[in-house]
Amino acid sequence: MRYKGVTDSRSKKTGEFVISCAAVLYVCAGIL
To answer: Which among 7, 21, 24, 30 could disulfide-bond with 3, CB atoms 3.0 to 4.6 Å apart, if both were Cys?
Structure first.
């Protein structure tokens, strides 16, 4: 179920958001 255009750009934004969130959680876990 892949749609080109709006959904594609949304997927890229969501992917970047998830990656940044994971990075923040990883750093926080490292500090704790």
So the answer is: 7
